[in-house]
Amino acid sequence: MTETLLPAPKRRPRPYRAPSRVGKEFLIRTFGCQMNEHDSERVAGLFESDGMTMTTDLGRADVVYINTCTIRENADNRLYGTLGQLKAIKDVNPEMTLMVGGCAAQKDRDYVRERAPWVDVVMGTHNLDRVLDLLDHAEHWGPITEVVDELQAMPSSLPVKRELPHSAWITIQVGCNNSCTFCIVPSVRGPEISRRPGDILDEVRRLVDDGVVEFTLLGQNVDTYGRDLALDGKRRPIFADLLRQVGAIDGVERIRFTSPHPNDFREDVALAMAETEAVCPQLHFPLQSGSDRVLRRMHRGYTAAKYRDRLAMARETIPDLAVSTDIIVGFPGETDDDFDETLELVSEAQFDSAFTFIFSPRPGTAAADYVGEFVDDAVIKERFGRLQQVQDRASLARNQALIGSVQEVISEGQSRKNFSIATTRARNGKLVHVHGHHPAGEKSMVRIEFAGHHHLGGVLI
Ligand code: SF4
After folding, report:
1. Atom number, ligand 1, closest to the C-alpha of residue 186
2. Strand, helix or coil for residue 410
3. Could you tell me if 21 and 52 are in contact, meaning their C-beta atoms sit under 8 angstroms apart?
4. What pLDDT does 6 receive?
5. Is the peptide bond before 20 cis (omega within 30 degrees of 0)?
6. Tens digits of per-residue pLDDT, 91-102?
7. Residues of the chain with pLDDT under 50
8. pLDDT number for residue 440
9. Ligand 1 pocket, residue 261 CB under 6 Å
């Protein structure tokens, strides 16, 4: 069958319709960030609204949806590896419909088709609401590619299948107005669009009625939330107000958010965090580099001194704050001195945890063109190892400082590796392992008795 390339739909179709695939099963595989996980929950919700049930068994799946990421080269490699494996399964079961969505599909639609012509649907990040229509098309008329440049529907307005019954993602903003030179997000997710506060608060109220107590507000740069919204004769909504408004809703027990930007994170947000009981003492504060020269070339908009000041302000304002960060090792042109400055800042900041990445050039980003300045692999590896050692020491020390403390935890269900242990999450975002069977959503108080690099161990009190 020939592939159909559709233009952007003129009218957005209704997201709800009578279920037409009762008895069929779907499997979703998600690569990348929390935004993608949130999108996958919406795709799962749409599939369920059409009568299908979720499976983790590839052999049973009638529909497979791969939600792709393109932020790092590794994610691309894993995607094409996965698509290769799926071809073998599709050869045996040609009735299976294979759909590829997400950032890699948005950016490299033709390349996905070229590398994996057996894919039935290639769709982008802006038209999740069309997933069932595109599935219909593929089943009845053959392969289709539909990638549009403008957002058709806020993901949060679509049906959802949540992984945890007590916890929900809430999109407050999509896209990004920054231009970090290593980042592909602005070109695949577009400019910032904020959701109106009334819509967000309505969704939170509905979810509370549904039993949800924990909310993670999602945006690429939540601190600039509301800047694009029309004034309507009033003050523009700001993120600090939104935190207070969500926190004032009866039944909201925990609020988290990701991600703030060190350049835009101000005292009003820190105060709102400290003064709103439901907001958890947890901050993801992406550093990327401790060298001013590298930060400038990354277009991050802050210096190491400004980062230090804002981190200190956050810690002074918010009691018991747990801080995580992102760091890129081997940005083009990073010298030994630049890296030492990163190491010094990381050692001084004592982050609770860090996501450390090796720079990988993403076609379409400015940094991908700094070819003559790429850092030697062996040098990067050595730096990466040193950074991990410093961070591991800090993570362990921060966790050990909690031994003996009492923490409120909510269970996320039994551990997949050890069924006799439940994985729970404390207010500060840390994972706490607790013996016994504790269904997802169960709240308890525990005393911390063990601290590892990446998790704590607690006993019920
Ligand atoms: S702030 Fe920078 S790193 Fe974050 S999404 Fe925007 S461009 Fe990417």
Report:
1. 7
2. strand
3. yes
4. 45
5. no
6. 989 999 999 998
7. 1-15
8. 95
9. yes
Nearest to 64 by CA among 5, 10, 120: 120
Pocket test for ligand 1, best of 36, 183, 360 (most atoms within 8 A of CB): 183
* Residue 233: how many other CB atoms lie within 10 Å: 5
Domains and CATH numbers, the chain: 4-146 (3.40.50.280), 155-400 (3.80.30.20), 406-460 (2.40.50)
Q: Tell me if 379 sits within 8 A of 334, measured CB to CB.
A: no
For the Cβ of 183 lying below 6 angstroms from any atom of ligand 1, the answer is yes
Taking each helix axis from N to C end, the angle separating 267-275 and 239-247, rounded to the nearest 10 degrees, works out to: 10
> From residue 45, how far is each of 120, 156, 161, 280, 378 by CA, in Å?
20, 11, 4, 27, 45
Q: Whose CA is nearest to atom 1 of ligand 1?
A: 178
Ligand 1 centroid distance, CA of 255 (Å): 22
Give the pLDDT score at 27: 95
Number of H helices, E strands in the chain: 13, 20
- How many Cβ atoms are within 10 Å of 136's Cβ, its own excluded? 16
Q: What is the per-residue pLDDT across 220-244, written as a single tens digit (0 to 9) for each?
A: 999 999 999 876 667 789 999 999 9
CB of 321 within 8 A of CB of 281? yes
Place of tokens 């739909």: 9
* Residues facing residue 279 across a β-bridge: 255
pLDDT at site 233: 67
Does the beta carbon of 367 lie inside 6 Å of ligand 1? Answer: no
Q: What is the pLDDT of residues 385-439, one digit of tens each?
A: 999 999 999 999 999 999 999 999 999 999 988 999 999 999 999 999 999 999 9
Cβ pair 284, 220 in contact under 8 A: no
Closest CA to 412 of 401, 427, 422: 422
For residue 73, the model assigns a pLDDT of 66
Assess contact for 45 and 8: CB atoms under 8 A.
Answer: no
- Using the 8-state DSSP alphabet, how is residue 58 labeled? G
Question: Residue 108: what pLDDT?
Answer: 83
Return the axis-axis angle of helices 267-275 and 304-317, rounded to nearest 10°. 20
